[in-house]
Write a structure and sequence with these properties.
The complex is a heterotrimer. By secondary structure, chain A is α/β, with parallel strands linked by helices. In chain A, the strands form 2 sheets. A 6-stranded mixed beta sheet of chain A has the order 6-7-8-3-9-10, with helices on both faces. The chains are: A alpha/beta, B mainly alpha, C alpha/beta. At the B-C interface, α1, α8 and α9 of B face β7, α9, α10 and α12 of C.
């Protein structure tokens, strides 16, 4: 049984259906990437999995339990955390305060939680008193991931972690993601940098027009000529 | 034209009175995204609770003030749990009408309980102590201060500092700032935004309740419209400081307070126009910094 | 001045005309002339007397059958700044009404319908609109503050041709309203009080003052009259500082009044604002350096009860005062004391007189309508008439065909052509926190 199982998920905004029955699995310790063209519904799918968008039909199970209509805060509590694509830090709060808010559910999070994150991202410890909004985009992205890690989740949902970053920073972020995964956290992420992402992903899904198109290991997808031509920019 | 330091002192006292109301109003706006038009009535209620404690029950004035702090804070919780919790996602216009309705309702309750006639706190009269006397050049530094003046400024500053510590040191306070920064991220992070809103109402009410006590101590006279009469100035302070920023509101309160007192020294500006002058300052600042002094920051 | 093309007036006088012609044939023209002229000539008096007598006959036959009810509105400040005045108006008018309704006038009783002006123009106007449009009153009395009264007169009573008897509105400007004779008052204009106050300040050897004035018609009017007379007496007004009602602090105004050239400060403000002001003034030490004076608006239980005596002791001012030595006033005061267990204020006397005059005017006109009252009310208090001071006396003189001169509790209430009575004033001083009257002011005019 997979850690996360989404079956025939249908969702959208208002009257507009965007996801037309998508199924996805994430096993423990896996890195899974969702790729696809703009407007494929990748971000909407992530938000649906995290209950930020209502799931109209289908089911989502996490650790064997039906969490289709669970509250966001319950999902966090139970080990699923989410990092939005943009506006993913509290800009006027300090780095440390951002992390503290990440662990809000725990009451006051223990020191180890901070230390674990500072181990992954030493720059955050250096700048723990700095206002988050005044940091660079890469640092903010680290902080955003760090915030989500405060609860030590089993599954981390990342919506385009490399968005808007310079190429060398993209590699940095991906390195950190692999590092986090090695710490027993499964990763499900949406990526525009599809080629790079698939390289280190255990498996990948290609979404188009709100439907599953391809699904395989990262390596197979990378080498699939059709996928390459259509979705990886040749 | 001489600068009379006394006017500056008067401005600081008045600024202190509107300070607490300004902080609470700004917190509610920043965190809940709506302007609480019932804030004036919170002040009035604070004044009348003080009256009830001090005059009706004969308690010491500061115990009566503590009652105002607790009672109006509790009222804030009640309002949030009963009324506002159903309107977390309502449009601004609905929230606007809702708080206006709330204002009228509260004023009616105040009228029912304490009547329409003015009441008097009846605190002993005190002649101001002359601290300084004389002038240097064009500055007249003659100052007279009463112990009430000092108490007002002191209490306001203590509560403002307390609020600052709460906002920066406690989990709930930081959550309030986080929610003001980014409400949807706060939800994503698992912050219980509903409870944060309730606490914000409580804090905002408690501060306004104490502000009402200071207002009653200063004027000595209580009447059902007393809070409403100054709420526009409170709004001016909040907007000047940068709406939604409690720290901006603190600065705004003192600027507005001092500006409107000092305005009478400008030849041709009669005391009648001092409120207008306060708004003129506000408009001037907004022309220069359209988002207010805090510029959209805390 | 009256208009004779008013449709209501035509309706009512249409029915009257045959009676006038038969009963008072000779006087009819004079009556109409008198009415149209708004009482500018005493020679209409006889005609009016006849008119009154004929209608009085109708009236007495009506009263046998139970009688009509005349709805009169009272817009009263039950809330707001001038709330203390509401009770005075109610007590005074109720005292008059018990006498009127005991006797019945023109065969009917007056029914007073009240509404709250909240001491604001908005609320006052909507309250009077309700009285006029929904309750259908023909005569409106009140409200209190002159500013509110002017708003009501301009937007409700004058356009609707409703006779408007103001009880407490003393602003001089009301004299000059273009009211076609529909607006009159039972209290004297502040032009007279301003003169009296100027006299008192001047008599205290204070030759330069700062004025703090509530910025409405009342304050402006009184201040203007004060200033004019005070200067005539050879003194100077240094500054006139407007003050808005209901503010939390007046330190700016007081600072402005704190003027080394002034010897005194004159407060022309309402009790509520005054309490805040005088408190701040005391804190600033104003009382040490200046003689302080106040207009009649200050004289109130609230100020006596709520202001620490040390802040107001020695303050002086004027107050409109009824001729307390007169028999009429003493009878009124006695009845008032019996009814309410307290001494009346001058305002209660004005309210009392307003309703007494209204009652006599209805009886004199023999009917109740706005125009009938507006015409008759000038005629029941002319110096030429027989002096009367009760409804019973008035009725019997009117029924006998005689002109009457109502002597009110507040004075002779002879209305001039603008509908203003002249007043009499006492000067007061605060002694041990209480306003003590010191005798009548001789304005030397």
């Amino acid at each position: 049984m997979a850690l996360l199982e989404a079956r025939d998920v249908v969702s959208g905004y208002g009257d507009v259906e965007i996801i037309h029955g998508v199924s996805i699995d994430v096993a423990s310790d896996e890195i899974v990437s969702i790729i696809g063209p703009n407007g494929a519904g990748k971000s909407t799918l992530m938000k649906t999995l995290f209950s930020l968008v209502d799931c109209w039909d289908g089911t989502v199970t996490f650790r064997g339990e039906d969490v289709t209509h669970d509250q966001t805060s319950d999902l966090s509590r139970n080990g699923m955390c989410y990092v939005p694509q943009t506006d993913n830090v509290f800009p006027t709060l300090s780095v440390e305060e951002n992390l503290r808010m990440g662990g809000y559910i725990l009451g006051d999070p223990p020191k180890e939680n901070y230390e674990r994150i500072y181990n992954h991202f030493p720059i955050l410890e250096e700048r723990k008193s700095q206002q988050a909004g005044s940091m660079s985009g890469g640092q903010q992205q680290m902080l955003a991931i760090g915030r989500a890690l405060m609860l030590d989740p089993e599954l981390l949902l990342l919506d385009e972690p490399s968005a808007g970053l310079a190429p060398d920073l993209v590699d940095d972020v991906f390195e950190k993601i692999i590092e986090i995964n090695e710490d027993d956290t499964a990763i499900l992420m949406v990526e525009q940098n599809a080629r790079k992402a698939l390289k280190f992903s255990d498996r990948g899904y290609v979404l188009e027009m709100g439907e599953n198109r391809f699904e395989d290991t990262g390596e197979v997808l990378l080498n699939d000529s059709k996928v390459g031509e259509l979705y990886l920019g040749g | 034209m001489a600068l009379e330091l006394q006017l500056v002192v008067n401005g600081i006292v008045f600024g202190s009175i509107i300070l607490l109301a300004s902080i609470g109003l700004s917190l509610l706006y920043g965190i809940g995204d709506f302007a609480n038009f019932a804030h004036g009535e919170f002040l009035t209620l604070g004044a009348f609770i003080t009256f009830a404690g001090y005059v009706t029950f004969g308690l010491p004035i500061y115990v009566a003030g503590l009652m105002a702090f607790l009672f109006v804070g509790a009222l804030g919780v009640l309002i949030d749990r009963i009324l506002m919790t159903r309107h977390r996602d309502s449009t601004p216009i609905i929230l606007l009408i809702l708080t206006i309705g709330l204002a009228l309702f509260l004023r009616a309750v105040i009228r029912l309980q304490w009547g329409d006639n003015q009441r008097t706190l009846g605190m002993p009269l005190e002649r101001g102590t002359e601290l300084l006397q004389g002038s240097v050049g064009w500055i007249d530094y003659g100052i007279r201060i009463t112990s009430t003046d000092i108490a007002i400024v002191f209490l306001a500053l203590v509560l403002a500092t307390g609020t600052h510590l709460f906002l920066t040191r406690t989990r709930m306070g930081i959550a309030m700032r986080a929610m003001s920064d980014n409400k949807s991220l706060a939800k994503v992070a698992g912050i219980d935004t509903d409870t944060v809103m309730t606490v914000t109402w409580a804090l905002s009410g408690a501060l306004a309740g104490t502000g009402g006590m200071l207002l009653a101590m200063q004027t000595g006279v209580l009447f059902p419209r007393m809070g409403f009469n100054i709420v526009l100035v409170v709004f001016a302070a909040v907007i000047l400081g940068g709406i939604g920023s409690p720290y901006g509101a603190m600065i705004g309160a003192y600027i507005i307070g001092i500006a409107q007192e000092v305005s009478v020294m400008i030849p041709g500006i009669s005391a009648e126009y001092r409120y207008a002058f306060a708004f003129l300052i506000m408009i001037a600042v907004l022309l220069y910094k359209p988002q207010g002094l805090a510029g959209g920051r805390w | 001045m009256m208009t004779d093309n008013d449709p209501n007036a035509d309706d009512s006088s249409m029915n009257r005309r045959p009676i006038l012609k038969t009963v008072a044939a000779g006087g009819a023209t004079a009556v109409l002339a008198g009415c149209i002229g708004g009482g500018d000539g005493g020679d209409g008096g006889n005609g009016d007397g006849n008119d009154g007598s004929s209608d009085g006959d109708d009236g007495s036959s009506d009263s046998g059958g139970g009688g009509a009810t005349y709805d009169v509105g009272l817009v009263n400040p039950y809330s707001g700044d001038l709330a203390p005045f509401a009770d005075r108006n109610d007590r005074g008018s109720d005292l008059a009404l018990s006498e009127i309704n005991n006797e019945s006038v023109a065969g009917g009783k007056i029914n007073k319908i009240t509404a709250d002006s909240e001491t604001t123009s908005n609320a006052g106007v909507s309250a009077s609109q309700k009285l006029v449009n929904q309750e259908g009153v023909d005569v409106l009395t009140g409200p209190c503050s002159s500013g509110v009264a002017v708003s009501i007169a301009e937007s409700v009573t004058i356009p609707n041709e409703i006779t408007h008897i103001m009880i407490n509105s003393t602003a001089p400007g009301i004299t000059d309203l273009e009211d076609n004779g529909y607006v009159l008052r039972s209290c004297p204009s502040d032009a007279f009080q301003g003169q009296a106050l100027a006299q008192v300040v001047s008599d205290n050897d204070i030759s330069s003052v700062s004025l703090i004035v509530v910025n409405n018609d009342y304050g402006q009017g009184l201040a203007d009259a004060f200033q004019k007379r005070y200067k005539e007496l050879g003194n100077t007004v240094e500054t006139t500082i407007p003050a808005e009602q209901g503010r939390s602090s007046y330190s700016a105004q007081l600072n402005e009044a704190d003027n080394p050239n002034s010897e005194g400060i004159v407060f022309i403000v309402y009790p509520q604002s005054f309490q805040t002001m005088i408190r701040e003034a005391y804190q600033m030490g104003i009382q040490e350096n200046y003689e302080i004076f106040g207009a009649e608006s200050m004289v109130s239980d609230e100020v006596e009860q709520n202001v620490d005596p040390v802040a107001i002791n020695g303050m002086k001012g004027t107050n409109p005062s009824p001729p307390i030595e007169s028999e009429v006033y003493q009878t009124f005061a006695e009845e008032f004391q019996n009814e309410y267990d307290r001494q009346p204020t001058v305002w209660a006397a004005y309210a009392y007189d307003a309703y007494m005059m209204l009652g006599l005017a209805i009886h004199s006109a023999g009917e109740y309508s706005s125009d009938a009252v507006a015409n008759a009310i000038y005629e029941i208090s002319r110096p030429e008439g027989t002096e009367v001071s009760s409804i019973a006396e008035g009725k019997s003189e009117l029924d006998a065909g005689n002109a009457i001169n109502y002597q009110g509790a507040s004075g002779n209430v002879n209305l001039d052509e603008n509908g203003d009575p002249s007043g009499s004033y006492q000067h007061w001083e605060v002694i041990d926190g209480t306003f003590e009257m010191q005798g009548f002011v001789d304005t030397g005019q």
